[in-house]
Write a structure and sequence with these properties.
Blueprint (H helix, E strand, L loop, with lengths): L5 E2 H14 L4 H8 L2 H4 L2 E2 L1 H13 L2 H21 L3 H9 L2 H19 L4 E7 L2 E7 L16 H11 L7 E6 L9 E7 L2
Antiparallel strand pairs: 1-2, 3-4, 4-6, 5-6
Helix pairs in contact: 1-2, 1-5, 5-8, 6-7, 7-8
Length: 191
């Protein structure tokens, strides 16, 4: 049985965020993130879980800061990887079509981060409800006291700011905080 593959977009965005936000710790995290992880398509689950565990031990604020920035990088790179027609639609298309394209980009990004993760995005009345299943960031042995979905929060905010610069993100639930839960839920107010 396969353990699941971590995509290069996560490795690269996390490496970039650590380099900028925790420069004194780059050498430590580089053991898992440098080299093969950046040059091949993916890395294994165990090295990534180690990185996430060590990042959580840095404290709530550094973890959240690094993860949000990594999510923003991943979102930007996902937009850059779109075919030119989709990028044009994001720049000039009607609002409803731009919402649809952004939701599709987010769900694809979720699968590219960790192949077992899935996301659904429903947009109604200016609120995007994102339900994440099997998020790698919320894989913990014991429940934690704070949400761990900051990577997806940063990615969603970066993507949907293309519709409205005043996007607000509300963490509804986090799998890492609730024993037995299988999903994380984010609401983005994008009016």
């Amino acid at each position: 049985m396969r353990e699941g593959v971590i995509g290069r977009v996560l490795v690269a965005s996390l490496h970039q965020a650590i380099t900028e936000r925790l420069p004194a710790r780059v050498a430590f995290y580089g053991h898992w993130l440098d080299g093969e992880g950046l040059s091949v398509k993916s890395i294994g689950l165990a090295p990534m879980l180690a990185v996430l565990s060590f990042l959580r031990q840095e404290g709530d604020a550094p973890y959240a800061d690094v993860m949000r920035h990594a999510g923003r990088y991943a979102a930007d790179w996902s937009i850059e990887d779109l075919p030119s027609i989709k990028r044009t639609l994001l720049a000039t298309g009607p609002r409803w079509l731009r919402r649809y394209v952004l939701a599709r980009v987010f769900t694809r990004l979720t699968r590219e981060v960790f192949e077992k993760s899935r996301a659904t995005v429903r947009i109604r009345r200016g609120v995007a409800r994102i339900v994440l299943r099997d998020s790698i960031f919320c894989t913990v042995r014991e429940p934690v006291t704070h949400p761990l979905c900051q990577f997806y929060e940063g990615a969603a905010r970066q993507l949907f700011e293309r519709l409205s610069p005043d996007v607000r993100v509300e963490q509804v639930s986090c799998r890492g905080m609730e024993k037995g839960s299988t999903t994380c839920v984010l609401n983005l107010v994008i009016e």
